[in-house]
Amino acid sequence: MRDFKGKIAFITGGASGAGLGQAKLFAKEGMKVAIADVRLDALHSAVSEIVEYAGCNVADVMPLCFDLTDRKAYTSAADTVEKVFGGPPHLLIQTAGVNSFGPIEASTFDDFDWVMGVCLDHVVNGLVIFVPRMIKAYGGTDGVAREEFHVACTSSGGAFMAGATCGPYCAAKAAANNLMYSYADALAPYGGGSTVICPGNINSNIGDAEKHRPEHLRNTGYHVSEGTMAHLRSVHATGIDPIELAEILKEAIENGRIIALPTKDIESWEPQLRGMNGRIEDYLLTAPERQKIMEERMAEMMRNRPERDNPGGWEVPEGAERFGMARKDLDYIDPSKKPQ
Ligand code: NAI
Questions:
Q1: Which of 62, 128, 61 is closest to 94 using CA atoms?
Q2: How many A from CA of 133 to the centre of ligand 1?
Q3: CB of 138 within 8 A of CB of 90?
Q4: Is the CB of 212 inside a 6 Å radius of any atom of ligand 1?
């Protein structure tokens, strides 16, 4: 997709961070932009920010307040967009996400349901609701669309890792990546495209996500406090700027890239990527060959691993607490995984 002017975008998580950056950028490209988010106050200020940044008409920015895991609400938001903007989105960007850190063995159903609900289920919801509408409105045959259309998702570097302190998140992101690859294959004959962007760290408000966790999913196994959130905020403050990230996504969409890996230190990911993909190669090896290769890889990973890729290795600012620990009262958890 190369021509954005006058077209419609639907961006989830558009009230903050990466989603807000995308909304600003695509509004500036002349798109009508619908932003979906669960936080009404943040949506209001996002609309003003988008109008100011893009210099666009306020009528071309539509805030939609609902929980993206609610399929009925998502469907009625899609109907509203079609009615008000005159059609389904040409560009669907699903960016909303939450994160929560703690040992996977301490995770509760609520931890899984919240994180995987927002990071994976909402992506499924948007694809199921919008893709048929997009194909009907814009799809062509033999790989040529009647009007350009594209689906995108903001995933994470976590998609390529298996993190002992962010298991539900990594699982959701890995599945989201896989889905986007399937949609790339499925949409190509209609002339549509699919892109998944996997950032490393974004300067956003995700460190505060726990504050907005729904009441019915608050039974967490993790140690969550103002202090752990302060630590997370200090980590994310060093991340990529959301507008810069949106520009990388736009370039990927324009050039039909299925995946974009915007991270300053992509080389440092190599051992992790090799580690994950290497599991299949390893399966084909004999036991001693496997042992030798695993030891070499582990040594290489430990040598090259930057401190800041290790949640436990981040410097904890004064007054903050380290994140990624278990709730204090869990009696089966290794004491080193509990806060002091
Ligand atoms: P953010 O917290 O600034 O923005 C996320 C938005 O999603 C918030 O406005 C929030 O209200 C909204 N949201 C959360 N749950 C929702 C729900 N159930 N329904 C509707 N809206 C909901 O965070 P950020 O960092 O901009 O996150 C955007 C995406 O980037 C997420 O998918 C995240 O996993 C991903 N990501 C973030 C990284 C980071 O370092 N911040 C790194 C890699 C990926």
A1: 128
A2: 25
A3: yes
A4: yes
What's the Cα-to-Cα distance from 290 to each of 54, 281, 293, rounded to whole Å? 54, 9, 5
- Rounded Cα–Cα distance for residues 271 and 249 (Å): 25
Q: What is the C-alpha R_g of the chain?
A: 21
**Strands across the sheet with 259-260, in order?**
61-65, 32-37, 8-12, 91-94, 150-154, 193-197, 259-260
Q: What is the pLDDT along the chain (340 residues), one digit of tens a residue?
A: 999 999 999 999 999 999 999 999 999 999 999 999 999 999 999 999 999 999 999 999 999 999 999 999 999 999 999 999 999 999 999 999 999 999 999 999 999 999 999 999 999 999 999 999 999 999 999 999 999 999 999 999 999 988 889 999 999 999 999 999 999 999 999 999 999 999 999 999 999 999 999 999 999 999 999 999 999 999 999 999 999 999 999 999 999 999 999 987 777 777 777 777 777 877 888 788 878 877 887 787 777 665 544 555 678 888 889 899 999 999 999 998 998 7
Q: Which residue has its alpha carbon closest to ligand 1 atom 41?
A: 202
List, as one string, the DSSP characters of 244-298.
HHHHHHHHHHHTT-SEE---TTGGGGHHHHHHHHHHHHHHTS-HHHHHHHHHHHH
Q: Is the CB of 206 under 6 A from ligand 1?
A: yes
Nearest-CA residue for atom 34 of ligand 1: 97
- The answer to whether residues 184 and 202 touch, using CB atoms and an 8 Å cutoff, is no
